[in-house]
Write a structure and sequence with these properties.
By secondary structure, the chain is an alpha+beta fold. Helix content is 36%, strand content 11%. The strands form six sheets. A five-stranded mixed β-sheet has the order 2-1-3-9-10, covered by helices on one side.
């Protein structure tokens, strides 16, 4: 049968199902959607272009001066005088003709492989980074070119949070303009001379001469790769501080050079096998004056980065600090010379922090003694928390909380008698291995008795003690009974837990100012490159009631006048303070050849209404002991330095607050249950037995205040029990004025005999 013709097919169709007619309306809707999408894209593109030019209209002008200059920060003291320029004076510039090809190849290979192909902004690199960041869980990959990095270093902040859309647009615009104005080789030269290279050094030529003692053109491929890789994270890739990270980064640079066909496989194998310290020289410092404030500068840098996120080495800041240069110079002289204090040897270390009692401003600080000339931003013992502060913790850990929460009086009696840590069979012993029976809290503190301190700790409770300490900026991860007389803790978590001279000076300052805690502040104001400023001041927070601060202060006056701190006496100065001594365990003592009493460290923290000063003394090797001949070394340093800083400030006694009542020589919280009944004492208008400063005070000096005098009462003869005379009124002859257990994280050990 023949196949049907087209006409037959059409006839059949007309007899069968009708074909679906085409809908021109749907075709028109699809076209409209495409047009709308295209229109939106065009609008978005135009809006983006408009927004881009809106952002870049405020971009800074290109400046050869800024491109060529380092971006170091300047530090000013409290009088506005510059005392440190971080790196600006430590730069050796290299000309384009002396830059070795290997360095160009290394930088371009690791930082911007398409450097010689783009015009300042690289869309290919941006898309590649975007894909990498979306598809990989590892670290983010940046899309900035070398030119953009140079622009960022020269004109903008390097802080991540500052990298807004506006900033990125301006950065891209300036990079394009720079590529039009300067050659690729000129841009590379600017970059090589500008980047920060750790240890206060700017520019790769500077680093080559400081690290290897030779110019860039004479470095090996391995050394060249090390320097080329450092700018990404200079402190992290510092070959002196982080050799393993530095080697890994160097090898990464070498691999990119191999992959980019800039070195052979043989060169790569040889260079990666070279030790990271091959040819590395000891660092030298070219500024002896820098040592005086080195530790202070280190804390300034840390606080700037903590509070602003800015990088002092790349953001070109003007930082106004709270440093008192005269005080700092004097502290350095006291600690490093023998004119003021007789040190037992050259190895004994000293740490000290001086804080303004009213504001929390750190006026001076030192974190070591006889520090080597090549140390830059070295270890700061003034802020580390891995050493024990002994009985200096008693006012803040035991007596302060007892007055604050239990409203005890300084005249409350407590039994200094045999006692064991609760839940253990471990005895708490005193520094003299004896007990004084029933004594007042005043005497218990100024004689630094351990048993009463631990009893008070347990009576208040660890939870409330921890709460009180936290208000003073001090924490323990797991506070123990032994922390009643020791700051030992197994966990420091950097410097979060435990105590340092910085923390102790700030905590005692709250006693000095009537109960307000101020965070220690090294910085006062920062001026940024864009002309804006940011000021810093401590937002004081109430740490305790005024009565607590005053009662503790009143007892701590006695520590200096007749207790364990008589070596800290300063003629006619109103002051208060507390001694501290740590101890060795029995096992440690057995390993140390010694005669008489020894201890790992001694300390003293004291204050006036103007300043709070904390001193720590000890050896880096804890098993090198402080002997009885040097037991007063911390008091000596305190006395000499506090005398100096107090010369030109007012000398006034503390005023007794309205919520405190003096009965005889003891202090009571008004309204507390411990206050004797009104009938048992009578008001006395004259000042009664209030020792305001050292026993060497001139008796004609004006002391006290109207408030103090009006609140002073004298007991009738039968109303108040006369406390026994302390057997330890003079400075104890033993070096171990108190002996806490070796570790707060373990069950406390028995105190060894001094």
């Amino acid at each position: 049968m023949a196949n049907p013709s087209r006409s037959q097919k059409n006839k059949r169709t007309t007899k069968g199902k009708k074909p679906t007619p085409r809908n021109p309306q749907k075709r028109h809707i699809g076209l409209k959607i495409l047009i709308a999408i295209f229109g939106l894209l065009c609008a978005a593109l135009l809006s983006g272009i408009g927004l881009f030019f809106f952002y870049v209209k405020d971009a800074p002008a290109l400046s050869e001066k800024k491109l060529d200059a380092t971006v170091s920060s300047k530090l000013y003291d409290s009088d506005g005088n510059i005392f440190e320029d971080l790196g600006a004076e430590k730069r050796e510039k290299v000309s384009a003709t002396k830059i070795p090809q290997e360095l160009d190849d290394a930088i371009v290979s690791v930082e911007d492989r398409r450097f010689f192909k783009h015009n300042g902004v690289d869309p290919v690199r941006i898309m590649g980074s975007l894909v990498h960041n979306v598809t990989n869980d590892g670290g983010l990959q940046g899309g900035s070119t070398l030119t953009q990095q140079l622009v960022k270093l020269s004109f903008f902040s390097t802080k991540t949070s500052d990298q807004t859309l506006r900033r990125k647009a301006q950065e891209a615009w300036l990079a394009i303009q720079l590529e039009k104005k300067n050659s690729k080789q000129e841009i590379l030269t600017y970059y090589i001379n500008k980047v920060y290279m750790a240890n206060g050094l700017y520019g790769m030529e500077t680093a080559a001469e400081a690290y290897f003692g030779k110019e860039l053109q004479y470095l090996s491929i391995s050394q060249t790769a090390l320097l080329a890789g450092m700018p990404q994270a200079p402190n992290s890739y510092d070959p002196y501080q982080h050799p393993e990270a530095a080697k890994e980064r160097r090898d990464t640079v070498l691999y990119t050079m191999l992959n980019n066909k800039k070195i052979s496989q043989t060169d790569y194998d040889k260079a990666t096998k070279e030790p990271i310290d091959e040819g590395l020289l000891p660092l030298e410092t070219d500024n002896q004056e820098r040592k005086v404030a080195d530790n202070y500068v280190k804390e300034v840098i840390a606080q700037v980065e903590e509070k602003t996120g800015k990088n002092v080495y790349t953001d070109g800041l003007e930082i106004y600090t709270n440093l008192d240069t005269d005080a700092q110079n004097q502290l350095y002289s006291i600690v490093n010379g023998d004119e003021y204090v007789q040190y037992p040897d050259e190895s004994l270390q000293i740490a000290a922090t001086l804080v303004d009692s009213k504001t929390g401003k750190v006026s001076a600080q030192i974190g070591g003694r006889n520090i080597a000339d090549d140390v830059y931003l070295g270890m700061n013992r003034a802020v580390t928390t891995n050493r024990d502060f002994g009985s200096t913790v008693k006012p803040i850990t035991d007596y302060g909380p007892a007055f604050e929460y239990l409203q005890k009086s300084t005249g409350d009696r407590i039994s200094d008698s045999p006692y064991t840590y609760e839940g253990t069979k471990t005895a708490v012993k005193n520094w003299d291995n004896s007990y004084q029976g029933s004594i007042t809290l005043r005497q218990a503190l100024y004689d630094s008795r351990n048993v009463p301190a631990v009893k008070l700790f347990n009576e208040v409770g660890a939870e409330d003690v921890g709460k009180f300490l936290k208000k003073l900026g001090i924490q323990y991860k797991d506070i123990q009974q032994a922390n009643a007389i020791s700051s030992n803790t197994e966990t420091q978590d950097g410097t979060k837990y435990g105590i340092s001279t910085e923390k102790m000076a700030a905590a005692y300052a709250a006693f000095a100012n009537g109960g307000t805690y101020n965070e220690p502040l090294y910085i006062n104001k920062i001026k940024y490159q864009d002309g804006s400023e940011q000021t810093f001041s401590a937002e004081g927070e109430k740490a305790m009631e005024p009565y607590t601060a005053y009662m503790v202060t009143d007892i701590l006056k006695d520590v200096i006048s007749k207790g364990t701190g008589t070596k800290a006496q300063i003629t006619n100065l109103f002051q208060a303070g507390k001694t501290g001594t740590s101890n060795y365990t029995d096992d440690e003592l057995a390993k140390i050849a010694h005669y008489g009493s020894i201890s790992p460290e001694v300390m003293f923290t004291g204050f006036t209404p103007n300043y709070s000063l904390s001193i720590w003394a000890g050896y880096d090797d804890r098993m090198t002991p402080i002997t009885s001949q040097s037991e007063g070394i911390a008091q000596d340093v305190y006395r000499e330095f506090m005398s100096y800083v107090s010369e030109n400030v007012s000398n006034e006694d503390w005023e007794m607050p309205d919520d405190v009542l003096r009965i005889g020589n003891e202090l009571y919280v008004k309204g507390a249950s411990s206050v004797p009944s009104q009938s048992s004492y009578s008001v006395q208008s004259s000042y009664y037995n209030n020792t305001s400063f050292s026993q060497t005070t001139d008796s004609t000096s004006s002391i006290g205040s109207a408030a103090s005098e009006s609140a002073t009462v004298v007991p009738s003869e039968s109303s108040v029990e006369t406390p026994p005379v302390s057997s330890a009124d003079p400075v104890p002859s033993s070096s171990a004025e108190e002996q806490p257990p070796a570790s707060s994280a373990e069950e406390p050990e028995a105190t060894p005999d001094p």
